[in-house]
Write a structure and sequence with these properties.
The protein has helices spanning 18-28, 57-62, 76-87, 100-103, 108-114, 139-145, 166-189, 199-205, 208-217, 251-260, 275-280, 282-293, 298-307, 318-321, 325-329, 371-379, 383-390, and strands spanning 9-12, 32-37, 51-52, 55-56, 66-70, 91-94, 119-124, 193-198, 234-238, 243-247, 312-314, 333-338, 342-347. By secondary structure, it is α/β, with parallel strands linked by helices. Helix 1 crosses helix 7 (166-189) and helix 7 packs across helix 8 (199-205). The longest helix is centred in the middle third of the chain and has 24 residues, at 166-189. The protein is elongated and about 85 Å long. It starts with 8 loop residues before the first strand and ends in a 5-residue tail after the last helix. The mean pLDDT is 96.
Length: 395
């Protein structure tokens, strides 16, 4: 069966997380991802633990469906070879600090002259314009500057970094979306374009009601723990044997919830009839709910709430997530077989296409594993020519 991006060729200059996450998405959907890495060292993520047989599980989890070639872009012959590859490519993705590609003589303006149809995707901390454009960035720094840390953490507690590198990951998602949008435009116009994605922009874009609340009230939101800032009840409660997250997101669900917990009188209580009133009288309402929820186990409440159609769930640890029946039913934990590390469980493909489904065809590549294959296939190089290039130390 044909895959959605089967005829798209991507030159992937990215490393660590944001860029590799974007190209992994494109690879999962069928694009041919040619990962161009620094000779000897490769992607920085190859040196991040945990390790299995000296191979980084972190790197493996982010670089499936890619082929690897090493190339020294600081060497003239290395740049020439890259430019040859650009002529045959649909997309170039890089996540260097702005200005780096230009210093190498490989910036967007140069590449578009060689291939006017090229989509050039640049992922960086702060984007290619603005006073911060040349500043270095990592996920935690962007979470801090972008405001996300200021609204995360226990109520009245310290600002807290989100437990996953969401600054990188969201930028990677937007980069993949931008590449697809630009490819669609190219299908209509025949012209490529530059896609400029910043981690900071991406953080601001997902602040949802935090910005809305500030604009309306004039008060900067603060950490609120697991409680939703404007919906009640929408938080975790102690049960007889743990905790359960309950989300009664509207007045109808609130009425159903009251019936499930045997507190029907709360439905018509003038202090709690609407969500606005429940927010206003939250300090009085929460103890009334909490003293009921603590009398049954998490599993008992799950069964009762599920029957009533009220969103709920336990706060699972990762070991429970990878064994969860719904997660497994959706093929979201799969086992790959790496040539060095052996069998390893990794997240599956979250985009489920009915006619052109994604597929994990290959595990992450060894450093430079596909060099000869790529040069022969893409540029028609002969074995003797590749051996001559080896002498020039560009690999």
């Amino acid at each position: 069966m044909k895959m959605a991006l089967e005829n798209i060729k991507v030159l992937d200059l990215t490393r660590v997380l944001a860029g590799p996450f974007a190209t992994m998405i494109l690879g999962d959907l069928g694009a041919d991802i040619i990962k161009i890495e620094m000779p000897v060292k490769g992607d920085d993520a190859r040196h991040f633990g945990p390790y299995i047989n000296d191979e980084s599980a972190y790197f493996i989890s982010l670089n499936r469906n890619k082929r690897s070639i090493t190339l020294n872009l600081k060497a003239e012959k290395g740049r020439e070879l890259f430019l040859e590859m650009v002529k045959k490519a649909d997309v170039v993705v890089e996540n260097y600090r702005p200005g780096t590609m230009e210093k190498l003589g490989l910036g967007y303006e140069t590449l578009r002259e060689i291939n006017p149809k090229l989509i050039y995707v640049a992922v960086s901390g702060y984007g290619h314009t603005g006073p911060y454009r040349e500043r270095a960035a990592y996920d935690a720094v962007v979470q801090a500057i972008g405001g996300l840390m200021s609204i995360t953490g226990a109520k009245d507690g310290e600002p807290t970094r989100v437990g996953t590198s969401i600054g990188d990951i969201v930028a990677g998602l937007y980069a993949a979306i931008g590449a697809l949008a630009a490819l669609n435009t190219r299908n209509e116009t025949g012209k490529g374009q530059k896609v400029d994605v910043a981690m900071l922009d991406s953080q601001v874009a997902i602040l949802e009601n935090a910005i809305a609340r500030y604009v309306v009230t004039g008060e900067a939101p603060a950490p609120g723990g697991n409680r939703h800032p404007s919906i009640v009840p929408f938080e975790d409660f102690e049960t007889l044997n743990g905790k359960i997250m309950i989300a009664a997101g509207n007045d109808a669900l609130w009425a159903s919830f009251c019936k499930v917990i045997g507190r029907e009188e709360l439905i018509e209580n003038e202090k709690f009839k609407t969500n606005a009133l429940r927010n206003e009288n939250y300090k009085e309402l929460r103890p009334e709910i909490a003293k009921v929820i603590e009398k049954k186990t998490t599993e008992e409440w799950q069964e009762l709430l599920d029957k009533a159609g009220i969103p709920n769930g336990p706060i699972n640890t990762i070991d429970k997530v990878i064994e969860h029946p719904q997660v497994l039913a959706r093929d979201m934990i799969i086992e790959i077989d790496h040539p060095v590390s052996g069998k390893l469980k990794v997240p599956g493909i979250p985009i489920k296409l009915s006619e052109t489904p994604g597929e994990i065809k290959r595990t992450s590549p060894l450093l430079g594993e596909h060099r000869n294959e790529i040069l022969k296939e893409l540029l028609d190089y002969r074995e003797e020519e590749i051996k001559e290039l080896e002498k020039e130390n560009i690999f």
